[in-house]
Specification:
The chain is an alpha+beta fold. A two-stranded parallel ribbon has the order 1-2.
Length: 90
Amino acid sequence: MLVIAIDICEEKIRCARHNAAIYGVEDRIEFIVGDYLKLAPTLKADVVFLSPPWGGPNYLQADVFDIETMMKPNGYGSELFIQVFMHLRY
């Protein structure tokens, strides 16, 4: 199995590569610094795990967790998730 790890932040990819090396799995992961939405059309995957920004500590004070209003990764709302799934190819 090959895992493709994509993050727009070079530092996060560096940390992920370091952690993978510690656990002895670095050879099974392709690390890419880039924007997933731009790269997705060129990738083929069986599974996509998306971990958008979690919204910061203020979400703990909310009465209701509403993904539409609380999680707008990089200015996107739920349209981000729709784009992600539209790019999946099997």
